[in-house]
Specification:
The complex is a heterodimer of chains A (115) and B (113). Chain A is mainly beta and 115 residues long. Helix content of chain A is 0%, strand content 46%. Chain A starts with a strand and ends with a strand. Helix content of chain B is 0%, strand content 56%. Classes of the chains: A mainly beta (115), B mainly beta (113).
């Protein structure tokens, strides 16, 4: 079946503007994750959604970052008042059941460049 | 805090040779250790994983070993091929927050033809 999809694949924005990144998880997957990958770095956990439970937002770097997951499926990561240090690849992953017990499958990522 | 160290950061091998990438984790409660391969412009893809109740797992040319006492785990690729060239990431999950993977900083593997 279809994998995790993300849009847009690339986004160039000006400092101070807001951006929205979208993630469509694998159908039926209840768990969804957002990660940030800065150039030459590993993956930094941002947020985790599991079903209807309250999300774990402990990885969000500042209050400019927020995420929603509507209807237990699609998720949107919003970055307000973007800064140059927000430039990175934003990766979404999903898994069936409880994360950690089930494999996380990643999307291709959104490459964000803040000028 | 939780941390995963990965070495080396870059690795070049001749085609047909073996490649070994090593990771060390800090959280003794970690019990799941996946390895991901990331090709240019793509998201990470799971290539192999191991749980703490197993010391070694093999899948064709790829194997992973785990030493819980030393908190080390390693990826072994034998008979390397040019298509193995990519960035490889190790990760460790916590027993307490199993969904939270802590990733290493990655190893860029180049297989020279």
């Amino acid at each position: 079946g279809a994998g995790v999809s993300q849009s847009p694949s690339n986004k160039v924005t000006e400092k101070g503007k807001d951006v929205e990144l979208r993630c469509d998880p694998i159908s039926g997957h209840t768990a969804l994750y957002w990660y940030r990958q800065s150039l030459g770095q590993g993956l930094e956990f941002l947020i985790y959604f599991q079903g209807n439970s309250a999300p774990d937002k402990s990885g969000l770097p500042s209050d400019r970052f927020s995420a929603e997951r509507t209807g237990g499926s699609v998720s949107t990561l919003t970055i307000q008042r973007t800064q140059q240090e927000d430039s990175a690849v934003y990766l979404c992953a999903s898994s069936s059941g409880q994360g950690g017990k089930e494999t996380q499958y990643f999307g291709p990522g959104t490459r964000l460049l803040v000028l | 805090g939780e941390n995963v160290e990965q070495h080396p950061s870059t690795l070049s091998v001749q085609e047909g040779d073996s490649a070994v990438i090593k990771c060390t984790y800090s959280d003794s409660a970690s019990n799941y250790f996946p390895w991901y391969k990331q090709e240019l412009g793509k998201g990470p893809q799971l290539i192999i994983d191991i749980r703490s109740n197993v010391g070694e797992k093999k899948d064709q040319r790829i194997a992973v070993t785990l030493n819980k006492t030393a908190k080390h785990f390693s990826l072994h690729i034998t008979e390397t091929q040019p298509e193995d060239s990519a960035v490889y990431f190790c990760a460790a999950s916590s027993l307490v927050r199993t969904y939270k993977y802590i990733f290493g900083t990655g190893t860029r593997l180049k297989v020279l033809a």
